[in-house]
Amino acid sequence: MAGKTGTSRWLAAGMTAITLALGTVSTAHADASLLNVSYDVTRELYKDINANFIAAYKQKSGESVAIRQSHGASSAQALSVLQGLQADVVTMNQPNDIDLLAEKGQLVPANWRARLPDDSAPYTTTMVFLVRKGNPKHIKDWDDLAKPGVQVVIANPKTSGNGRYAYLAAWGYRKQHGGTDAQALDFEKAIFRNVPVLDTGGRGATTTFTQRGIGDVLVTFENEVSLIASGVGADSFEAVYPSVSLLAAPPVSIVDKVVDKRGTRKEAQAYLDYLWSPAAQEIIAQHHLRPRDKNVLAKHATEFKPIRTFTVEEMFGSWQKAQQTHFSDGGTFDQIIVDKK
């Protein structure tokens, strides 16, 4: 993990640009309320999950619960919780963001992954490309992102787990094709020379590409690409799956210090447990995320294109090692940004 100086700079970089979107279910008559602090491309997902959980919890327990949402760049969101945002649960897009809460704030225990199934990750996704209709730049794989004349939209890896996954996917691709670390670094430099703007989060990058019309290719989560490719304006874009990509398993956790202070542990635990229920897994699949439930996944098998993936642990040893090497102060990403300037 980044040291104190790195954390403060990371916070400054993320929080100056972040917009916290709080979606509130009325708490006036609720028996309890929860705040779910999440990353910024899960707005639609949790809007649906929350409504279904509230109804299911009322039917099962006879008690009402209200849920508020906060969305932003994942790493900046984690830092907000570390700095005092009273999250009952966090639903982040990478383990590092919850490890930060354990290591820097003792807000969750170090073994938080072991408290829920699947290392506390209720679904998976991966990084793919969104290009403009007809794919005029003929973008097919990670190599194409490094070509001169191609504009690439990627979220800032310093503030966004989305950007971090994209960066690590490109690095891993080059290493899997026989590249050395030095060659992988040069590859990243070539890609980021093609990046016209670094948005703080994945949804901001999507807006830059789809609404501002900047860039030839957007690198983002599969579910975000599927949402765009099947939504309003879909005839302007198309999805491209690279030959290999990085597996993302976004994790969740209760924030122990908050729920114990607020007396909401029972509701928070029920909320996270619900994410593995068949009903929630179906909602997850409908939002183009790959569910853990094998029956639900089989039902939606045709919606998820096969793609070869590798994990952070396989390629980089651990998230902690990847963070220290690539995203801490003076790491490889800082070298890239200096070179870009």
Overview of the molecule:
The protein has two domains: 4-122 and 250-276, D-Maltodextrin-Binding Protein, domain 2, CATH 3.40.190.10; 125-248 and 308-340, Periplasmic binding protein-like II (D-Maltodextrin-Binding Protein, domain 2, 3-Layer(aba) Sandwich). 46% of the residues lie in helices and 17% in strands. It contains 16 helices and twelve strands. Strands 5, 6, 7, 8, 9, 11 and 12 form a seven-stranded mixed sheet that branches. It has a five-stranded mixed sheet with strand order 1-3-2-4-10. Mean pLDDT is 90; it is low at 1-26. InterPro entries: Thiosulph/SO4-bd. Residues 1-30 form the signal peptide.
Question: Can you tag this structure with a few keywords?
Answer:
Thiosulph/SO4-bd; D-Maltodextrin-Binding Protein, domain 2; 12 strands; 2 domains; 17% strand; alpha/beta; disordered N terminus; molecular carrier activity; 5-stranded mixed beta sheet; 7-stranded mixed beta sheet; 341 residues
